[in-house]
């Protein structure tokens, strides 16, 4: 099994439709993405994955949402 | 100048954040996409483009929004 990383991205999401879209796109990457936690209140997207940080970032950007920042936890 | 087509897609969008995301992603395709009209009320995305129907469809799907139908007008 490949090593898992935990990344957190700050993403502008204004409704549950927005956050569901981000979730849906990231879950298409299963099993390379093992878990996605989204908080609309905190405007955060937590991703547990074996994929690189940049790969996930690009995928989120393709949803059309603005990614304000991101980090490895 | 290449021939322009007008496609209309029915897309589930629940807020202006949702529709802005779709708009933003499609406008990245300029100048191959010349115009994007989105109606949140009608749940429609109208695209004027020289690109194929499927190319635009795939781009919208990557936003994580559900595309219910689409047609060439």
Automatic annotation (TrEMBL), chains A, B:
<keyword id="KW-0406">Ion transport</keyword>
<feature type="domain" description="HMA">
    <location>
        <begin position="4"/>
        <end position="68"/>
    </location>
</feature>
<keyword id="KW-0187">Copper transport</keyword>
<keyword id="KW-0479">Metal-binding</keyword>
<dbReference type="GO" id="GO:0046872">
    <property type="term" value="F:metal ion binding"/>
</dbReference>
<keyword id="KW-0143">Chaperone</keyword>
<dbReference type="GO" id="GO:0016531">
    <property type="term" value="F:copper chaperone activity"/>
</dbReference>
<dbReference type="GO" id="GO:0005829">
    <property type="term" value="C:cytosol"/>
</dbReference>
<keyword id="KW-0186">Copper</keyword>
<dbReference type="InterPro" id="IPR017969">
    <property type="entry name" value="Heavy-metal-associated_CS"/>
</dbReference>
<dbReference type="InterPro" id="IPR006121">
    <property type="entry name" value="HMA_dom"/>
</dbReference>
<dbReference type="InterPro" id="IPR051881">
    <property type="entry name" value="Copper_transport_ATOX1-like"/>
</dbReference>
<protein>
    <recommendedName>
        <fullName>HMA domain-containing protein</fullName>
    </recommendedName>
</protein>
<keyword id="KW-0813">Transport</keyword>
<comment type="similarity">
    <text>Belongs to the ATX1 family.</text>
</comment>
<dbReference type="InterPro" id="IPR036163">
    <property type="entry name" value="HMA_dom_sf"/>
</dbReference>
<dbReference type="GO" id="GO:0006825">
    <property type="term" value="P:copper ion transport"/>
</dbReference>
<dbReference type="Pfam" id="PF00403">
    <property type="entry name" value="HMA"/>
</dbReference>
